């Protein structure tokens, strides 16, 4: 019985972590252009993605050492 309770607890905690970001979409890559209303990011797959922003838009800058 204990292994089953432990398994259920691990599943519940894992699901909370997986869905913790809600419905927002996350984008990672190199910023190639920025304007007052948009940010263009080149993803690892080399696809440029343009995101239109508003005053409430939040983003983080991550500085990583070069490879």
Please give a structural write-up:
Strand 2 (38-42) and strand 3 form a beta hairpin. The protein is elongated and about 60 Å long. Strands 1-2-3 form a 3-stranded antiparallel beta sheet, with no helix packed on it. Helices cover 25% and strands 22% of the residues. It has a domain at 24-55. It has one helix spanning 2-18; strands at residues 30-34, 38-42, 48-52. The mean pLDDT is 77. With 67 residues, the chain is α+β, with helices and mostly antiparallel strands. The protein has 1 helix and 3 strands.
Q: Overall mean pLDDT score?
A: 77
Strand order of the largest sheet: 1-2-3
Shape: elongated
Q: Radius of gyration in whole Å, from Cα? A: 18 Å
The percentage of residues in β strands lies in 15-25%
Structural class, from secondary structure content?
Answer: alpha+beta
Q: State the order of secondary-structure elements, H for helix, E for strand.
A: HEEE
**Oligomeric category:** single chain
- Main β-sheet description: 3 strands, antiparallel
- Please count the beta strands (DSSP E, at least 2 residues each): 3
**Uncertain stretches:** none
Tally of DSSP helical segments: 1
Q: What is the helix fraction of residues, given as a range? A: 25-40%
Instruction: Determine the N-to-C terminus distance.
Output: 49 Å
């Amino acid at each position: 019985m204990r292994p089953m309770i432990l398994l259920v607890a691990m599943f519940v905690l894992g699901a909370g972590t997986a869905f913790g970001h809600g419905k927002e979409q996350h984008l990672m890559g190199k910023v190639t252009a920025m304007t007052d209303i948009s940010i263009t990011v080149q993803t690892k797959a080399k696809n440029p993605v343009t995101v239109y922003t508003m005053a409430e838009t939040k983003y983080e800058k991550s500085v990583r050492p070069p490879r």
